[in-house]
Amino acid sequence: MIKLRSKEQLPPIYDQIKRLLEEKIENGEYLPGSKLPSERELSEQYKISRMTARNALTSLVNEGRAYRKQGKGTYVAKPKIKRDLLHLTGFSKMLKERGIEPSNYTLGAEIFEADKIISEKFNISIGEEVYKITRLRRGNQQNFALEYSYLPVKLFPGLLDYDLEKDSLYRIIEEEYGFKLKFAKQWIKLAKANEYEAKVLEINPDTPILILESITYTKHDMPVEMTYSLTRGDLCEFYTELWSDLS
């Protein structure tokens, strides 16, 4: 029998229950997609209140370890894909490194005239031609991200002749056009999916999504590609490291 700490001790009881459930998830007792014990079952098993049991399950849901089905219960979520921001790596390569089979679908490809915002990003004149490529990024038959990529036409003539569903955009930039990529500047934002984004990503409208804005530069510090990646927060998380500059 598992003995829980008293209320005078830390952590609180609901957090202890949450950790017990996490241990069972990690050791495979509860597999992804399987149902977790209900509030009533937890309450009876650990001699706790229904409110404490509810708080434990809610904490798992809030951390992305579980999800709820209305009227059915709480279920174990699939492990999130950790996308590190430490290396300049394409989305498909990142998935392959994690044992996930990537696939891409081009939803749109067009040429338009740069507005003020785009022109400032690329240091080009307003009105210059820019590609806009819209792709759905998938892994193991799941929709992970909706991406909008922008590139100056004058740097990449004939880009749309390449198969962007099967080929890596970074590979094309480096090997076909000769631009050696050096680094990227990135910004992360939290937003809610609109109806179109929700439909493409197969989530409910207003579901929180992570937006990764990235501008990629060559070894000569020239911006050549910008991407807005609208990523499902229930499937992916971003990871980075911070180092002290103190000696």
Automatic annotation (TrEMBL):
<dbReference type="InterPro" id="IPR000524">
    <property type="entry name" value="Tscrpt_reg_HTH_GntR"/>
</dbReference>
<keyword id="KW-0238">DNA-binding</keyword>
<dbReference type="InterPro" id="IPR050679">
    <property type="entry name" value="Bact_HTH_transcr_reg"/>
</dbReference>
<dbReference type="GO" id="GO:0045892">
    <property type="term" value="P:negative regulation of DNA-templated transcription"/>
</dbReference>
<protein>
    <submittedName>
        <fullName>GntR family transcriptional regulator</fullName>
    </submittedName>
</protein>
<dbReference type="InterPro" id="IPR036390">
    <property type="entry name" value="WH_DNA-bd_sf"/>
</dbReference>
<dbReference type="GO" id="GO:0003677">
    <property type="term" value="F:DNA binding"/>
</dbReference>
<keyword id="KW-0805">Transcription regulation</keyword>
<dbReference type="Pfam" id="PF07702">
    <property type="entry name" value="UTRA"/>
</dbReference>
<dbReference type="GO" id="GO:0003700">
    <property type="term" value="F:DNA-binding transcription factor activity"/>
</dbReference>
<dbReference type="InterPro" id="IPR036388">
    <property type="entry name" value="WH-like_DNA-bd_sf"/>
</dbReference>
<keyword id="KW-0804">Transcription</keyword>
<dbReference type="InterPro" id="IPR011663">
    <property type="entry name" value="UTRA"/>
</dbReference>
<dbReference type="Pfam" id="PF00392">
    <property type="entry name" value="GntR"/>
</dbReference>
<feature type="domain" description="HTH gntR-type">
    <location>
        <begin position="11"/>
        <end position="79"/>
    </location>
</feature>
<dbReference type="InterPro" id="IPR028978">
    <property type="entry name" value="Chorismate_lyase_/UTRA_dom_sf"/>
</dbReference>
